[in-house]
Amino acid sequence: MAKRQSRRRKSTNTSDENAVPRSHAYRQLKHPFEAQRVFSDDAIERMHNMALRLLEELGIKMLLPEARSLFKAASAIVDDDTLMVRIGKEIVDQALNSAPRSIRLRAASPTKEQLYENGSMLFTAGSGCPNAYDIERGRRPGSLRDFNETLMLQQSFDIIHLLGPSAEPQDVPPNLRHYEMLRSQLTLCDKPIFTYARGRAQVQECFDLIKLGLNLSDDDFIDGCWTSTVINTNSPRQIDIPMAEGIIDFARAGQISIITPFCLAGAMAPVSISGALILQHAEALAGITLAQLANPGAPVSYGGFASNVDMKSGSPAFGTPEHIKLSIGSGQLARYINLPWRSAAGSASNTADMQSATENNMGLMAALQANATLTIHAAGWLEGGLCFGYEKFINDVEALQTIAELCTPLPEDEDTMGWSALADVEPGGHFFATEHTMKRYRDAFYPPLVADLSNNGSWLESGGLTSTQRATTIWQNTLRDFKKPAHSQSAADRIAGYIEAGIARGGSAPAGG
Amino acid sequence: MAKRQSRRRKSTNTSDENAVPRSHAYRQLKHPFEAQRVFSDDAIERMHNMALRLLEELGIKMLLPEARSLFKAASAIVDDDTLMVRIGKEIVDQALNSAPRSIRLRAASPTKEQLYENGSMLFTAGSGCPNAYDIERGRRPGSLRDFNETLMLQQSFDIIHLLGPSAEPQDVPPNLRHYEMLRSQLTLCDKPIFTYARGRAQVQECFDLIKLGLNLSDDDFIDGCWTSTVINTNSPRQIDIPMAEGIIDFARAGQISIITPFCLAGAMAPVSISGALILQHAEALAGITLAQLANPGAPVSYGGFASNVDMKSGSPAFGTPEHIKLSIGSGQLARYINLPWRSAAGSASNTADMQSATENNMGLMAALQANATLTIHAAGWLEGGLCFGYEKFINDVEALQTIAELCTPLPEDEDTMGWSALADVEPGGHFFATEHTMKRYRDAFYPPLVADLSNNGSWLESGGLTSTQRATTIWQNTLRDFKKPAHSQSAADRIAGYIEAGIARGGSAPAGG
After folding, report:
1. From A320, A351, A447, residue closest to B446, measured CB to CB
2. For B397, phi and psi rounded to 5 degrees?
3. What pLDDT is recorded for position B512?
4. Which residues, 6+ apart, have CB-to-CB distance to A270 below 8 Å?
């Protein structure tokens, strides 16, 4: 097979390597490849129609009276005893007409703004984890320190585009937690902010904090979206009170809710790929419609986070063939209704091993094939979301950066094609020192973050560490070298009094959740 | 974010799980997705033309006199002093016309036959490794025992379609090694056989052993290909003596040679993606042309195994963005000349960690995007090919099986879509026990090979092992339960005398290398 090439460029010293002037700005990315299909266009149309029929004939249970009222006012058939809402096709159609196709995600730094639209490729770190893990400190319940550290990691890598709550700060009481989650995002980061929909009072206070912290007028605040939330339906066919409140409140405030049924095929959804997608589609359409009824034209995202249950453990599975097919099918459905949409990667593995890499990589591959607008849980998600892994995050960032590099179009000019270099080098020679190489080599290739390509002898000499072990140093150095964004102190000052007053009042209890 | 679902199907006992009657026959696979592009069609045409110009104006160095004679007879301009051959476009065009588009790969078992043509998706295990590694026995120079064990692993997983020399049996003298490599393949396996092109004498003896072992007449032997070889050019622009002999001998015997320049951008090839591909294309065209001059219509494959050098270590890199782009570009070039082609995955990592998984997964993703006919080094390749990892192999097989599952089209009938199941389940209920689920759940999802999806408590109780550690038991059980194919004893008997006589003669020295 391939013969070994023995000539290797002499290793330069570390300071030189770090001086390689290569851009790492993986910011406003556009999908490089065409979307793939797992269903025929005809089947997608039938699935859409079955979802509409599901909403019209069987209906969806809406626990929030205000949501039922909105549907009633739009001529849906509402039964206030069973709490069921039956939604006609024309109501859904009208909502799909008024939902925007392109949404401007604002950020404290204009360079971190994003267009949330089909064609964009955005990533969020693993989010919603009650626990955190790193090699040095082991597995523990998430704390504010973990929440802040994981935010700093998210902030430090351009490939993470939207902030997410990676580690739940369980050491902060639930009624005060939203204050700290917003304070940290506003003072440590300059990327689009995440807000949990944990009840009206908390949501309103989070909006207030964003306006205060970033010094936004009411008009500024609705000029694009300054924050997003993820709305999970209670599959099958149910939307609970805090989720419906979240949809309504975000819509009225002009902020984006990402309507994401979590349809596990064989558990909360039918066991077939198409059956699970039909349920997901119906529930997402119901949520999108509610947002549009609350505020026509409100920013809203379609969401697909369907996977299968593992037949052995009954756990949610990620990166499986079924997950990939469901992601690609979700993309087909999102494009059918012409809305931007979110997908998800992630891992069920308990540790940062090959399983965890392959699960996440397969989910990322699915998102790429599916042209997902946003892929959540793209880095650091272990245990199916029960734990955020620091070393796992660093290793997943490598995979994400690899994919991001595919977004740069290749130059097609004759000079790049290197005819003169080809002509310069004799048969059996090498290209190390040609002018063509010397001119380009510093910027030619992606420089690995955690991958170590040294030979076995050198690798053993430097300790024989796995990429998981090497990642410890990387996240530690990243935190050590972390610099707060320019607006940090002024934001901190502007929100301090509001939070103090809130704490003095006893904060706001979260709703349901 | 996603709320945890607490209801989980009760775990069944192990023997029940193993009884799940699901087909694992990942055999004659067809690519499920459309090929992607990294270059415009126009750029690909220009690259093809630059490769032709390279062959016509600059030429390629052919060390073998017989190869130069074949080119001279075809009106190429040959300089026997410089050994350079300048090949006109019309000579290449004629070769591309006579090369077959679809090649039948024969195997001892007809169920393991393959069509080598564009659209097929074939995988070979990591090959050509001088060393072997597993957790129990550590890293060691490859031995015949390792060679045999790795063949048995290849034989045991349907996702490995063609045999490959995973671990070099260094304890067998080079002049006798080909006997043992063929004996093992003929008696342990029933899949398409690999033969090294290590000189005429060895190649002829390998052909003889295949005919004897599988009881083939001369006519049988040329009815399809019973064996393949990989031909590496000596980039840039050189083909050495054993490689040219291999091309000629395989072509004349009607067996397939896979012409694979190993173009490392920035080392043996230009530093740009397009430049490296132009060199690869020129060298592959030269090899393909030589095969067709030796025997018009001979089975031959285009090969692309281009990657970049790591800027830090100077080592070949795998699974990098450049590797992915080069693979997709190779696919575009192969389709431009309408020939089936091989790609490669693999890993540069020193151990079966996340790096190693991500590198290989990215290479597999590239092969999928590029619609590679054959992907070599798809499982088990560590250290850029210097070491075959047993646990790595098992973990990579999981990734391959995940991809293979994508080849099964999704049913689009109304019953599968599950309308009645959707109507059966109340809002907030579950689908565990619906008729729709009960009818399908045993076969509905891919059952993981090494992935463990149990929760953290169960995982810790069962030892808290990584997927790499769990893989040890899997390869050990696979070897323990291994059954030789039906033809094993008769093949062994038929070749025994031939090998004995060869050994008595002192075998045959390999040529070059």
Report:
1. A320
2. -60, -35
3. 61
4. A276, A278, A279, B418, B421, B422, B431, B434, B436, B437
- Asked if the Cβ–Cβ distance from A361 to B359 is below 8 Å, we say no
Measured between CA atoms, how close is B242 to chain A, in angstroms? 13
Point out the residue among A2, A354, A441 whose CB comes nearest to the CB of B356: A354
What element of type H or E holds A436? Answer: helix A435-444
Return residues 132-151 of A near B (CB < 8 Å): 139
Cβ-Cβ contacts under 8 Å for B267 (sequence gap 6 or more): A5, A7, A9, A430, A431, A432, B309, B314, B316
Return the pLDDT at B228. 98
Q: Is the separation of the CB atoms in A125 and A362 below 8 Å?
A: no
Residue in chain A nearest B321 by alpha carbon: A402
Q: How confident is the model at residue B414 (pLDDT cuts 50, 70, 90)?
A: confident
CA atoms of A269 and A266, how far apart (whole Å):
6
Q: Do B17 and A311 touch (CB under 8 A)?
A: yes
Which parts of chain A have pLDDT scores under 70? 1-24, 512-513
Q: Is the ipTM of this complex over 0.90?
A: yes
Other C-beta atoms closer than 10 Å to the C-beta of B105 total 25
Tokens standing for residue A234: 């209670």
Say which DSSP state B40 is in.
-
**Dist CA A115 CA B375 (whole Å):** 37
B31 inside 8 A of chain A by CB: no
Tell me what pLDDT residue A249 has.
98
Instruction: State the helix-helix crossing angle for A390-405 and A467-480, rounded to 10 degrees.
Output: 90
What's the whole-model pTM score?
0.95
Write the DSSP string, A298-333. --EEEE---EEB-TTT--B--SSHHHHHHHHHHHHH
Q: What value, to the nearest 5°, has the Cα angle with vertex A235 and ends A233 and A236?
A: 135
As a whole number of angstroms, the distance between CA A368 and CA A327 comes to 10
Chain B residues in contact with A354 (beta carbon < 8 A): 352-354, 356-357, 392, 395, 466-468
Residues B70-92: what's their mean pLDDT?
Answer: 98
From first CA to last CA, the distance across chain A in angstroms is 57
Decide if A433 touches B, using CB distance below 8 A: no
Work out the minimum CA distance from A96 to partner chain B, whole angstroms: 23
Q: Chain A neighbours among B 92-131 (CB < 8 Å)?
A: 127-128
Chain B, window 166-225: residues with a beta carbon less than 8 angstroms from a chain A beta carbon: none
Contacts of A387 (CB under 8 A, 6+ apart): A129, A130, A131, A132, A133, A139, A350, B456
Question: Per this entry, what is the length of chain B?
Answer: 513
CB of A361 closer than 8 Å to CB of B361: yes
Q: In angstroms, what separates the C-alpha of B425 from chain A's closest C-alpha?
A: 8
Average pLDDT, chain B: 94
Q: Token pair 């126009």 is at which residue?
A: B42
Chain B, nearest residue to A397 by Cα: B358
Report how far residue B153's alpha carbon sits from residue B160's, in angstroms, rounded to the nearest whole number: 9
> Tokens at residue A325, please?
């097919």
Quote the distance between the C-alpha of residue A406 and its chain's center: 19
Report residue A71 CA to chain centroid gap. Answer: 30
Continuous H helices in B318-466: 321-336, 354-369, 390-405, 414-417, 419-424, 435-444, 456-461
Of B164, B264, B320, the CB nearest to A402: B320
Q: Is-cis flag, bond preceding A427, omega within 30?
A: no
Residue type, B145: R
Which residue segments constitute the domains of chain B, with CATH numbers given?
96-408+494-503 (3.20.20.480)
pLDDT at B7 over 60: no
Other CB atoms within 10 Å distance of the CB of residue B219:
7
- Chain B (272-311) residues lying within 8 Å, Cβ to Cβ, of chain A: 272-275, 278-279, 305, 308-311
